[in-house]
Specification:
Domain ABC1 atypical kinase-like: 88-330
Helix content: 55-70%
Mean pLDDT: 78
Transmembrane segments: 488-508
Low-confidence stretches: none
Active site: 281
Largest sheet: 5 strands, antiparallel
Radius of gyration: 33 Å
Distance between the termini: 105 Å
Pathway: Cofactor biosynthesis; ubiquinone biosynthesis [regulation]
Main location: membrane
């Protein structure tokens, strides 16, 4: 089975000329000329990036998802490849309804019609890992039932094994292979896929995001019905709305697109900086808009997390960018160890200024954040900057926000929209509000500790006294030992002198 799959991969690679991407790295051109004579009948009108995208689509959904993930790694890929791979769509025909019913019956232990009041046999969405059916719970609640594709674990295991082999080979035979870190990329992809294969994990992500935005005027998140969920089945509230890419339909229902675009920016920065937990797959297919203008989030398989250090570091860098304080940005990178300590601050500052200065005071329609990020990555490589893994999803999400903003309001200025939010957040983190919040957080602990304080102080002082007495005792013992050693050395010296005197007397007597 694996050999057949490998043969197909090789066949598709040759058909779309992917081998030429490796041969082009041979500066002498000799190997390419020999190879082209062997495959003399091949000719390609498309660019290498288009051929790569078509090849991945031919190889199936797992390779499509791999290409999608690669498109976010603009720190590794040339711009033409990253731009083309971003066009990949996870379009997969649905699997037969009978299989979905079998999965559900196996999980619930009884027929689907005994579990749900109504279950629609025709799926409403299908992807490489799962598909979705609408249904009703026994109490009449409308739900969406997500069912894992049968046998997908086996398919993924085979394809991942082949990707790992391909990564090793690529590192060995392609000069650029080591810089692209293919084995690390495949390991990262494996982690994402394994997370998506556990629908309980996705349900937990959905529940967490819903709790973070409870009663929010900006974002709606479906409720999870845990009694109906398992590793290969997820049941959540059915959401009604218009897909965010259908701008004409949004206008028809009276949605203010400018306000919607600004709300999208606020939602993104709220998730990142307030919660450190953000939806990392915000393409138009995963976002609906409610009749009241609120966003509706769907598909929670890929989520990003940031710790407090990441959030503070990012916020300071964003604010420094907004204030055009490029020296502060350069110093922050050096202090964080993201670039080597030997880096000259003035040179790094100048490089950052060259990339970022042209983008300010322009509407979003005149700015390509993709190109800006690309130039920043090129600058990063020049200064040996290591791309932080926890920020890769953040970069991808920011690019998605750019695309949504362009569709909704081409005049949106992302910087001006985000700056007030970040300043408020920084004040909350570092101002008097942060002090008050810290006191409130610690008050329960203090309430339990304060009554014990006199006893704890007494114990501490008593322990300190005991420690001092013990130290003094050890010093006295050392002094006595030194005196004993001194007396012993004195006796040895006298004995040695006596022996020497006897030996001298004997020699003189002779």
């Amino acid at each position: 089975m694996r050999l057949l799959r490998l043969a197909k991969i090789v066949s598709v690679s040759l058909r779309f000329g992917l081998d030429r991407m490796i041969l082009d790295a041979d500066s002498s051109g000799r190997l390419a000329r020999i190879w082209n004579r062997v495959f003399f009948w091949r000719s390609f009108d498309e660019s290498r990036s288009v051929r790569l995208r078509l090849a991945l689509e031919s190889l199936g959904p797992i390779f499509v998802k791999f290409g999608q993930m690669l498109s976010t790694r603009r720190d590794l890929l040339p711009p033409d490849l990253a731009d083309e791979l971003a066009l990949l769509q996870d379009r997969v025909p649905p699997f037969p309804t009978e299989q979905a019913l079998a999965v559900l019956q196996d999980f619930y232990g009884k027929p689907v019609d005994d579990v749900f009041r109504r279950f629609e046999r025709t799926p409403v969405a299908s992807a490489s890992v799962a598909q979705v059916h609408f249904a009703e719970l026994p109490d009449g609640t409308e739900v969406a039932v997500k069912v894992l594709r049968p046998g997908i674990e086996h398919v993924i295991a085979h394809d991942l094994a082949l990707l790992e082999v391909a990564a090793v080979v690529l590192e060995k035979i392609w000069p650029e292979g080591r810089r692209l870190k293919p084995r690390e990329v495949v390991a990262e992809f494996t982690k994402y896929l394994n997370d998506e294969l556990d629908l309980m994990r996705e349900a937990a992500n959905c529940s967490q995001l819903r709790r973070n935005f409870k009663d929010s005027p900006l974002l709606m998140v479906p409720e999870v019905y845990w009694d109906f969920c398992g590793r290969n089945v997820m049941v959540m509230e059915r959401m009604h709305g218009v897909q965010i890419s259908q701008t004409e339909a949004l206008k028809a229902q009276g949605t203010d697109l400018s306000a919607l675009s600004r709300a999208g920016v606020e939602i993104f920065f709220t998730q990142v900086f307030r919660d450190g937990f953000f939806h990392a797959d915000m393409h138009p297919g995963n976002i609906l808009v409610h009749l009241d203008g609120r966003y509706i989030a769907l598909d929670f398989g890929i989520m990003g997390t940031l710790n407090e250090v990441d959030k503070n570091y990012l916020a300071q860098n964003f604010l420094a960018f907004f204030k055009r304080d490029y020296r502060r940005v350069a110093l922050a990178h050096i202090e964080a160890g993201w670039v080597p300590a030997k880096t000259r601050v003035d040179e790094f500052e100048a490089a950052i200024r060259t990339v970022c200065e042209p983008i300010f005071d322009k509407p979003l329609k005149d700015i390509s954040f993709g190109k800006t990020l690309l130039r920043l990555f090129q600058t990063a490589r020049r200064f040996e900057m290591e791309v932080q893994p926890q920020l890769v999803l953040l970069q991808k999400t920011l690019l998605n926000i750019e695309g949504l903003g362009r569709q909704l309001d081409p005049e949106l200025d992302l910087w001006k929209t985000a700056k007030p939010f970040l300043e408020r957040w920084m004040n909350d983190q570092m101002g008097w509000r942060a002090l008050v919040r810290g006191i409130q957080d610690e008050a329960p602990s203090w309430a339990g500790t304060l009554p014990q304080l006199p006893r704890l102080v007494h114990h501490a002082l008593n322990d300190s006294g005991k420690q001092y007495a013990a130290q003094q005792q050890r010093l006295l013992e050392l002094q006595r030992l030194q005196r004993r050693q001194g007396r012993l050395l004195g006796l040895v010296g006298v004995f040695a002198l006596a022996l020497l005197a006897i030996e001298v007397w004997r020699l003189l007597g002779l």
